[in-house]
UniProtKB/TrEMBL annotation:
<dbReference type="GO" id="GO:0000155">
    <property type="term" value="F:phosphorelay sensor kinase activity"/>
</dbReference>
<keyword id="KW-0547">Nucleotide-binding</keyword>
<keyword id="KW-0067">ATP-binding</keyword>
<keyword id="KW-0808">Transferase</keyword>
<dbReference type="InterPro" id="IPR036097">
    <property type="entry name" value="HisK_dim/P_sf"/>
</dbReference>
<dbReference type="InterPro" id="IPR000014">
    <property type="entry name" value="PAS"/>
</dbReference>
<dbReference type="InterPro" id="IPR003661">
    <property type="entry name" value="HisK_dim/P_dom"/>
</dbReference>
<protein>
    <recommendedName>
        <fullName>histidine kinase</fullName>
        <ecNumber>2.7.13.3</ecNumber>
    </recommendedName>
</protein>
<dbReference type="Pfam" id="PF13188">
    <property type="entry name" value="PAS_8"/>
</dbReference>
<dbReference type="Pfam" id="PF02518">
    <property type="entry name" value="HATPase_c"/>
</dbReference>
<keyword id="KW-1133">Transmembrane helix</keyword>
<dbReference type="InterPro" id="IPR036890">
    <property type="entry name" value="HATPase_C_sf"/>
</dbReference>
<dbReference type="InterPro" id="IPR035965">
    <property type="entry name" value="PAS-like_dom_sf"/>
</dbReference>
<dbReference type="GO" id="GO:0007234">
    <property type="term" value="P:osmosensory signaling via phosphorelay pathway"/>
</dbReference>
<dbReference type="InterPro" id="IPR003594">
    <property type="entry name" value="HATPase_dom"/>
</dbReference>
<feature type="domain" description="PAS">
    <location>
        <begin position="1"/>
        <end position="51"/>
    </location>
</feature>
<keyword id="KW-0418">Kinase</keyword>
Amino acid sequence: MDTLLKDAWEAAREGVLVFAEDRVLYLNPVAAELLGIERERVLGRPLLLALRDHKLEALCRIGGETTIETRNRTVWAKAVPGILLLWDQTEEKNRVEALEESSRMLAHEFRTPVAGMLSLLEALQGGLKGPDAKEALQMLYQETQRLRRLVEDLPLTRRPSQERTFALEDLRSRLERFLAPQLAEKSAWIQWQTPHTIRANPDAVYQALLNLLDNALKYGTGAEIVVVSGQNADGVWLEVRNQGQPLEEFEKLFQAGQRGVHAANVRGTGLGLALVRRLAAGWGGTAYGRALENGNAFGLTFPLHAGTAYNRQTTQTPV
């Protein structure tokens, strides 16, 4: 084998395996790693013993290209007479899957302000007058501003985090106005016990809390929803509690596309809680769920920040 050619193969980023008469003549370090074999043990041995994959062996015999899953990796393979080329596409596949998930998340995140804006516009077109019209225009302006900030937060346009210190109570009136139609439809109400101050992106917290309240309205069985905050040594926690049958498993509900056992008759995409967890991670917190005696609680955590003056009236931990 030409020395320069062999040196090039040794340094190549793709895997190279050379064979003749169904026996291995050479393979470079990348090929050995992708196939999970030791070079010294397979040189001169039959292809199947080296490849340990009938699909790859057949590819070497007939030529062509394919993609296989091996050793928790996605590998593209191409065979020409006497040579098998291997390329690790795991990172590319993961990037594509992450992009697809992000697209679904963004569609879900955009759907809420757009739906709210359409409802407000329909109300204005229906002849809303006076103070009600003024309030609807103010809400429309707020949702438009939030939509603008969502666009600015896209990966290609992302600016430094818009975090600031604010009181959780600041979100109350805005959330109640937006959820007013759902609350009226369900004859439900929200009880607020949120005296704490946090540091985060207010729009991100608003979106996360809106998703949790929306879930509580969809899946809860009681009329009262409780939003309560507390503080422990790690920071502030915030929970949305609703009545209903306690769930047995919560973690899978935070995975994209997963829905609870009681969601069969409720419209949804299964992205709401996954988005909540992603938003919480953005401010350094977490999202969780836990069963209550007669219901369920879904919560958010906010880490302590130097200089943040938390209200310490409520210091209990979730129980």
